[in-house]
Design goal:
The protein is built from ten helices and 19 strands. It has helices at about 100-120, 130-140, 145-150, 160-170, 170-175, 215-230, 240-260, 265-280, 325-340, 415-430, and strands at about 1-5, 15-25, 30, 35-40, 45-50, 55-60, 65-70, 75-80, 230-240, 285-290, 290-295, 300, 305, 310, 315, 355, 375-380, 385-390, 395-410. Helix 8 (about 265-280) packs across helix 10. Its EC number is 2.3.1.-.
Length: about 450
């Protein structure tokens, strides 16, 4: 018999950790190769971790709500083979030592599990959110210390700000009497601005208190961070999409019969955005401190609303290389898997520019928040049938046209009004010059 260490796999660019949400197997259960063992969640998407081997689950090293780093061992699976468990990373000094025995390896696993158990705070009668417990573990805050924190939340619950304030002030009292260093003599450090206190909310007996979803909390944090990071500016432009409307109406049945896909307006808009980005590549950038990162690939994020009201942004990689059929297949695939909760972590990574369709719910325009670390985002308004002045060689007349607004939000730290306005104008030009004679 051999023991295999199931590790948290790499889940895409910039994903360094995940939260365990649910174990699908119990200790003693038989596991098939490629069978899902547990469910995890990142700040982008939920996913499953499959087993790489066939065997029996003998140890679960983490509990639900625990945060695990990529590469950490999360479970031990006993196999029938004689292959050794995955070797731990060793230092140069360890290479000189004798190989560890099977008992030593088991002792290390047991110690690791005891370390995890000692930090899961499960013996406390007090409620702590997964986020608070995660911060406590990262900062090595023991249960006794955690119990001593005065909570400002409902029923004295410890909030994120409470524990961060505790970490910031931790140990200051013990060092206050220490002799001042040379650099601190006769000087005083500027006081940090006080964090604004949360406005207390009164709750009466008729109110319903609803806990935000995990993804909802992450979206909230991400949006607030974006507003605090980027100087948001908006430009708006109205577009005549009558030719696109009529073309889609004419070819949609043939398109579905020939390609096996529905043709919506979204891939047509995405095609125009990708073309405009190639014309204005400085909209396809990220800001890292004082350095501008100019992206080589054009990866379009496609904001999608989930059935529970949360938002997710799957990414169409190398969108400028796709024709309209390929774009339609990519849009339909990502949208379908997003609604069904089947996205993989890598499906939401690597976006360089985002498009959101606020017109889905009838809005004619919007002021979307930039999806960090990108520097711009485009909102598509609802397509409306409106009376409009139509110019012809024989004179102007009033006609029925299909029109929509494009709302462009951009980071004024690096995108000035000229670039932001010219970019959305170019998108509009591509849409209005759409070739309605093109075949499927």
């Amino acid at each position: 018999m051999a023991k295999f260490e199931l590790k948290l796999p790499k889940m895409g660019e910039s994903v360094a950790e995940a939260t365990i949400t649910n174990w699908l197997k119990e200790v003693g259960d038989t596991i098939e190769e490629d069978e899902a063992v547990l469910e995890i969640a990142t700040d982008k998407v939920d996913s499953e971790v499959p087993s790489e081997v066939e065997g029996t689950l003998v140890e679960m090293l983490f509990s639900p709500d625990d945060v695990v780093k990529v590469g950490q061992t999360i479970a031990i699976i006993e196999t029938d083979g004689d292959a050794p468990a995955a070797a731990p990373t060793t230092s140069s000094e360890d290479k000189e030592q004798e190989p560890a025995s099977a008992q030593d390896a088991q002792n290390r696993v047991t110690e690791a599990r005891e370390a995890v158990v000692s930090q899961n705070y499960s013996t406390s009668d007090r409620f702590y959110s997964p986020l608070v417990k995660s911060i406590a573990k990262e900062e090595n805050i023991g249960l006794e210390e955690l119990e001593s924190i005065s909570g400002s939340g409902k029923e004295n619950r410890v909030t994120k700000n409470d524990i961060l304030d505790f970490v910031e002030n931790r140990g200051k009292s013990s060092t206050a009497s220490a002799p001042a260093s040379k650099t601190s003599q006769n000087t005083s450090a500027p006081a940090k601005p006080a964090k604004p206190a949360a406005t207390p909310v009164s709750v009466n007996g008729e109110d319903e208190v609803i806990e935000m979803t995990r993804m909802g909390k992450m979206i909230s944090h991400h949006m607030v961070n974006s507003v605090q990071t980027s100087a948001h500016v908006q430009s708006f432009i109205e577009v005549d999409v009558t030719k696109i409307w009529n073309w889609r109406k004419r070819v949609k049945d043939e398109f579905q019969r020939k390609e096996g896909e529905k043709i919506t307006f979204t891939p047509i808009f995405m095609e125009a955005v990708a073309k405009a980005i190639k014309d204005f590549p400085m909209i396809n950038i990220a800001l890292d401190g004082d350095k501008i990162i100019k992206r080589k690939n054009i990866n379009l994020g496609m904001a999608a609303a989930l059935p529970n009201g949360d938002l997710i942004v799957p990414v169409i990689k190398n969108a400028d290389r796709l024709n309209l059929v390929g774009m339609s297949k990519a849009v339909n695939d990502l949208a379908g898997r997003a609604r069904g909760g089947k996205l993989k972590p890598d499906d939401t990574q690597g976006g360089t520019y985002t498009v959101t369709n606020v017109g889905t719910f009838g809005s004619i325009m919007g002021t979307p928040i930039i999806n960090q670390p990108q520097v711009a985002i485009l909102a598509l308004g609802a397509i409306r049938k409106v009376p409009a002045v139509v110019e012809t060689p024989d004179g102007d007349f009033i006609g029925i046209r299909y029109k929509m607004f494009l709302s462009h939000s951009y980071d004024h730290r690096v995108v000035n009004g000229a670039l932001g306005g010219q970019f959305v104008q170019r998108v509009a030009q591509y849409l209005e010059s759409f070739d309605d004679s093109r075949t499927v």
